[in-house]
Amino acid sequence: MTALRALTLAEGRLYLRDAGTVFFALAFPTVLLVLMAFALPGMREPIGDIPGFAGLRPIDLYAPVAVAMAIATTSLTTFPAVFGTYREKGVLRRLSTTPLPASRLLVAQVSINIAALVVAVAVALVAASVAFDVAAPSQPGVVLVGFLLGAVHMTALGCVLAAVVPTASSANGVGMLLYFPMLFLAGVWTPGPLMPAGLAEVAAYLPLGAAAQAMSEGWFGDGLPVTQMLAMIGWTAVLIPVAARMFRWR
């Protein structure tokens, strides 16, 4: 445990030294939320007579979307890129010859990225509350469960990427190929009730889309998003064994 703690602290310091990583992981969801609120017309005006959403504003609907964006950012961009860099530079190969199990590096990186995710979500929600008076969740417990399940299965997906990417550039490339379509399905461009019904139905079964929908239901609805939660549990059950089986330390 002492070795793991020392490794985690060392990796954390390296993480904080990269200004680009810190901005993208911790601040990007908040910055995008603020820019959309001020740059897009009608974002702070009531939506209208959409059933279940009357009186809300588009910016309100983006609160759970911003949380989903933070999950995607840490799991698909910053996390796999570290392992691509270490594999490219031979760090993983050298670690495999030391008494310290190389798997400790994975544990350390997961811990750092989970901490970064918590900070990013806290910053986004505080900004949304203070700057735009975004509505509080109607079912905080459902939002929390949706967030936890989303973080777990998306981190598992990040582990799959980290397991196979040979370089930092390939990690960034593959991560971005997944990142932007997932943001679309999570509602970054068409949040909540504005998403076409057929697309929303498909997104409910896909990574991140299920998390965003579950948190949105907890935020604005009064039901239990069983389908989305089961989808996230299913993705977790599939992705964790796949990552463990595919992980290469060289």
Automatic annotation (TrEMBL):
It is found in: Cell membrane; Membrane. Keywords: Antibiotic resistance, Cell membrane, Membrane, Transmembrane, Transmembrane helix, Transport. Pfam families: ABC2_membrane. The keyword Membrane applies. The chain crosses the membrane at residues 21-41, 61-84, 105-132, 144-165, 177-206, 226-247. Signal peptide: none annotated. One of its GO terms (molecular function) is ABC-type transporter activity. This is Transport permease protein. It comes from Actinotalea soli.
